[in-house]
Known about the structure:
The complex is a heterodimer of chains A (117) and B (114). In chain A, a hairpin with a 4-residue loop joins strand 8 and strand 9 (74-79). Chain A is an all-beta fold. Chain A has strands spanning 3-5, 10-14, 19-21, 24-26, 32-39, 46-52, 60-61, 64-69, 74-79, 88-96, 105-107, 111-116. In chain B, strands 2, 4, 5, 6, 9, 10 and 11 form a 7-stranded mixed β-sheet that branches. Classes of the chains: A mainly beta (117), B mainly beta (114).
Amino acid sequence: AQTVTQSQPEMSVQEAETVTLSCTYDTSESDYYLFWYKQPPSRQMILVIRQEAYKQQNATENRFSVNFQKAAKSFSLKISDSQLGDAAMYFCAYRSGGGGSNYKLTFGKGTLLTVNP
Amino acid sequence: DSGVTQTPKHLITATGQRVTLRCSPRSGDLSVYWYQQSLDQGLQFLIQYYNGEERAKGNILERFSAQQFPDLHSELNLSSLELGDSALYFCASSLHPGQGSGYTFGSGTRLTVV
């Protein structure tokens, strides 16, 4: 079974600074997807960024980018120019890309990000 | 607004009772997924439906059941409720199972069992 580990329960960053959240995963599959979801105090789960395992290029969405290291099974999230609205719980998630019906998302335990003004 | 609608937003009930949580997927989405979020277990996958059919089961208790109706809305039924069932229950949807663009989540139903 796949597992997702987020080793940082909490992180803090100063407004306008850059922060990196870590995520590692364990899988024997070669085809899969990785996601970062954000859960602000409103508790809504919001997709931040996604990465397809077969793509070498790291995904980028505005101020959010990932460092995907397939061999190391690492998928970190970098937030540049941090804003107060970035404060939230961030979850790393894995999803199998292969055939069959096992398309569930497996989540890490989350990292609580605090942004200090 | 994500387009995935969950009702009710909050629910308080007593142990031993039965409740039904409702989810309307985003317009056009055929797949529905249910997740439970609790402090000790984190986000756990419960069950997935695609176009009315059950596709995958996760850590769903026998006291829990779900279904997806012809209009694609889904209901999660929780019975013989215990204190430990208190959690945030999320519904998510996607066009097809395994859609690589990710799933869209609703805002959840907060269930409190007293």
